[in-house]
Design brief:
With 337 residues, this protein is of the alpha+beta class. The protein folds into two domains: 213 residues, Endonuclease III, domain 1 (Orthogonal Bundle), CATH 1.10.340; 108 residues, Nucleoside Triphosphate Pyrophosphohydrolase (Alpha-Beta Complex), CATH 3.90.79. The chain has 13 helices and seven strands. The strands form two sheets. Strands 2, 3, 4 and 7 form a four-stranded antiparallel sheet that branches. Strands 1-6-5 form a three-stranded mixed sheet, with helices on one face. A hairpin with a 4-residue loop joins strand 5 and strand 6. Helix 8 crosses helix 11. The longest helix is centred in the last third of the chain and has 20 residues. The protein is globular, with a radius of gyration of 23 Å. The N and C termini lie far apart (80 Å). Bound molecules: iron/sulfur cluster (SF4). Iron/sulfur cluster binds next to helix 9 and helix 12.
């Protein structure tokens, strides 16, 4: 009997699995659920290369879910700085507290899904990788692989129910966790969005997209969303080599993160002269942040942060770039004078 595509992929994984700090080698007992869960949350919208050193640092600082639960929220947000999508960090902390209070992670996707910040994909990934439950963990990479394998040329948003059904049908119950990780590796390294390496793929003989000669054409392209544009103003208030920083409100974008003070972001550009302007793309809108000088003393709760220690403030990328741009502009002005 010819080998099933799932078996071919597992054999390929046994020989080629990527060594990652949150993963044990194929066939060995699974990594502890804390590390599996943490890696899955960190990897949402963030690349493996970026996550690797941050993951190591995180588990060194908080080696167990109980240790993370006991950490002050500000320390967790600070450790997360630069990884983006800060609601993840808030949910991560809330989830750790809930898990620590109940004595451990639920062992099923249904149980995991009830925890803060754990959606369908993360629940399925943790249940299959840490506990061996045979639930299909289907993220964007897996959707692409399955769509190509079956020659689905509709956009993923339209074909999603079919893709999920097909993924569930091929998911082996005996090595569910290894299979989840094998599909992740295939999607990341071989069945890439652009220029898939079909010549190296263990599924080539079974793949409809490969047989068509244009594998990249599968699945169909998604409709382009037009993101609205906003403007923000960030006040530069400086005294004795320090600038005034505030903590953003807990709820909303960059909630709980360190920031330059300023009014709410709006659709109209601020009228004051900008020292520097940085552009940033969020999921649902783009932003131009105008850094403007303000001589008035701070009227908000915050703290003076020395410019020499600005890297220790736990600033998210947007504000770190804004400060960098303002300092660069000042240097350029000084050079020109
Ligand atoms: S053969 Fe090519 S398109 Fe098909 S699954 Fe493999 S890498 Fe993807």
């Amino acid at each position: 009997m010819p080998a099933r595509p799932a078996d071919k992929l597992l054999s390929h994984y046994d020989a080629n699995a990527r060594a990652l700090p949150w993963r044990n080698p194929p066939g060995s007992p699974p990594m502890d659920p804390y590390r599996v869960w943490l890696s899955e949350v960190m990897l949402q919208q963030t690349t493996v290369a970026t996550v690797k050193p941050r993951f190591r640092r995180f588990v060194e600082r908080w080696p167990t879910v109980e240790a993370l639960a006991a950490a002050p929220a500000e320390d967790v947000m600070q450790e997360w700085a630069g990884l983006g999508y800060y609601a993840r960090a808030r949910n991560l902390h809330a989830c750790a507290k809930s898990v620590a209070a109940t004595g451990g992670f639920p062992r099923t996707a249904d149980g995991l899904r009830k925890l803060p910040g754990i959606g369908d994909y993360t629940a399925a990934a943790v249940a299959s990788i840490a506990f061996g439950e045979g639930t299909a963990a289907v993220d964007t990479n897996v959707e692409r692989v399955i769509a190509r394998l079956h020659g689905i040329d509709r956009p993923v948003a339209e074909a999603r129910p079919d893709i999920r059904r097909l993924a569930a049908a091929m998911w082996p119950r005996d090595r569910a966790g290894d299979f989840a990780q094998a599909l992740m590796d295939l999607g990341a390294t071989i069945c890439r969005p652009k220029a898939p390496l079909c010549g190296e793929c263990p599924l080539a003989a079974d793949c409809v997209a490969f047989a068509s000669g244009t594998p990249e054409a599968f699945p169909g392209p998604k409709a382009k969303a037009i993101r609205p544009h906003r403007h923000g103003e960030a006040w530069w208030i400086e005294r004795d080599g320090a600038i005034w920083l505030v903590r953003r409100p807990e709820k909303g974008i960059l909630g709980g993160m360190a920031a330059l003070p300023g009014p709410e972001w709006a659709t109209a550009a601020p009228t004051g002269r900008a020292i520097a302007i940085v552009s940033h793309g969020f999921t649902h809108f783009t932003l131009d942040l105008h850094v403007t000088h303000r001589a008035a003393p701070p009227d908000s709760e915050g703290w003076w942060q020395g410019l020499a220690t600005i890297s220790e403030a736990g600033l998210p990328t947007l504000y770190a770039r804004a400060i960098e741009a303002a300092l660069a502009a000042r240097e350029a002005r000084a050079d020109a004078a």
